[in-house]
Amino acid sequence: MYLLNPLQMNDWDNRRFFWVFQAIQLAFIGVILLDLLGHYIPIAREALAFLYLTFLPGVLVLKALRFHNLGTIETLLYSVGLSLAVLMLTGFAANIIYPLLGYARPFSFASLFLTTVAVVQVLLYIALTRDRGHTTSNPKVEIPPSPAVPFLMLLPFLAILGTYMRDEYHMVTLLFLLLILIAIIGLAIGYDQFIPESCYPLAAYTIALSLLYHTALISEYVWGYDIHHELHLANSVLIPGFWDMSIPYNTNGMLSVVALVPIYSIICSLDPVWVFKILYPLLFAFVPLGLYRAIERQTSPKIGLISVFFFVSFFTFYTEMISLARQQIAELFLVLTILAMIDKTMDRGRRAFLMITFGFAMIVSHYGLSYIYLFSLIPAWLLLITLERLPFGLQELVRKVAGTLAPDLLAPRGGNPQEIRTLVLPYILIFATFTYLWYSTIAEGMAFATITGIWDKIWNTLFVDPLNPTTAQGMQILTRRSSTLLHSLAKIVHITTQGLIAVGLLATLVKAKRWRIEPEYLALSLIFLLINVAGIIVPFFASSLNTSRLYHITLILLAPFAIIGGITLYETVASRIRMITAIPLMKTPYQILSAFFVVFLLFNSGLIYQITNDNPTSMALETTGDKPVFNGKEVQGARWLYLEGINRPIYVDGMRWWLLLGFDPDHQRYLPANVSLVEPNSYLYFGTYNLVRESVRLEAQEGTVTVAGYTDAEQFISNKNRIYDNAGSVIYYR
């Protein structure tokens, strides 16, 4: 069955494009007007507004710049990325220009709605004018007749229903089923069963979205750590209708939080809590899709999908990243930058536009990821130009040492290297300039000061105290004794993946012709591997982001090398022990790798620990224990506390600290181990866990390691007056 491809609207003829576009826009405006008049159509405004904001501006930019015949996946991904960039820049421009014109609330519905529609109309005019001479092809899309299509599309809905059952009835059966189905899909990929190659992109997106939703949708409130501060900053824009760029927080300089969230919240009529919980996972799931496309273009569809399965199976993807909205958006721009970088078929001007645009969007989305990318670009570029300029004799020596190396170890394949290579000095200088200008001016330069402070810490301890587990967080994780045998086995599985990556990188260098990895991708991957090593041995390096986040970031580039490494090891063993290929379930390397990464998923998701009741770790499957997941009564109590306009110190334990961070970070204090240190005329906030267990969580920092323990709550509440109690949270005053 063939249909006109809606994901490649930029390739349609102008007449068809204009009328379809206007029909979508009129439907969008009509639904909003009906809603304003009191005729609410369930989901219609939210869905149409999300589609309008997320896809149409980017499609117009592609058409205006005459990007054609990119293919469905690239067109979809670039449209999303360009749309988000347009929205963030629109919010930023409105915040600066409207107050100068006497309008003090640029982030209000009237201003944002009219501004967005106006910007889209201008882009439409430019697109139709500039693309007038395009020879159209009106591309069509085939809907695969495979039964895998409806099955894969049902996975996110199973995640939604499963989290609802968990929250309302404390039943996790459907979430168990979801993880088992995803594991079965992982096996089916390796065994060439059920999932045809035409469904691989759909599988990459729906598996990722299902894993994200199975954790993001637990609770009716945001959960995790940093996301509470992100919520506070988003509300600090929504309530006054203005973004105060001078507030000295790192996150306050990130348009992915202070511009994008308010725009989606206002236009879609969604509470920012649900923007974080519903819309951001929809956007973040494009990261694995982009990763699949980048790997598939260089290797094969099967390697691409298994790489994505490995990437999304790592627990950080669907746990820690849920509470880091700004990094979710920045990772999307990183993947889009890489995708544009490896596309040597695109002309230089268009590729430069995409790389610079996505690079700038990454800078204004997350400072940590931007710094890592910048500090990787420089050595990767030096590596490329060094190898290109080696004397002929040294090049021959390199080839002999490598044995089967192609003549182009990392250099471009044929032609003039300066004309083909996409990682060039001007791009790095532009990216570095944007980074410095933005981080040194917005939010009083806090993001720039932060990286300076981290560097000072690293430099002062690098040669004095290396490999010390109290300062090198990665080393602390490796040397820490696991609590049980299963957890020890999980650590071995994780270490094995890193070994496979190292083998895969070496195999790629040795057999460059076979794996066809682009030089820029390979050079950046080598630097990312060094970043992983630095996270283990360099003091205060990994702890700046957390070791798990650092590994997750490096997997964006390194994931395919684990698959290449596994294939290399299998072929090496099979060449010596030929009977291996005759053993059932081991006939191909893909069968073994798919089974291995399914085990990797079962450990990372916590399913194995939950089944065996062995120190469960899953946020979704484990409904007891002390976690940064807060119920409605806890949120209600925190809201009451701050609505009272309290300006006195508020004491809270280590876990409830994050909840209060989402309301006002200026007055809360950590509960001290010594009760006598609690200031007089202060408040004490208790959550549900504190009340049920009659204990509080006390935390202390020892180097890069947070040491936590629980103590009796009674000592803190004696001689205090209970001024609020809703049976889920209590507030005391003394």
Automatic annotation (TrEMBL):
The keyword Acetylation does not apply. Keywords: Membrane, Transmembrane, Transmembrane helix. The keyword Transferase does not apply. It holds the Pfam family DUF2206. The chain crosses the membrane at residues 17-37, 49-65, 77-97, 109-128, 148-165, 172-191, 203-223, 249-267, 273-291, 303-319, 349-365, 420-439, 522-544, 550-570, 590-609. Coiled coil: none annotated. This is Uncharacterized membrane protein.
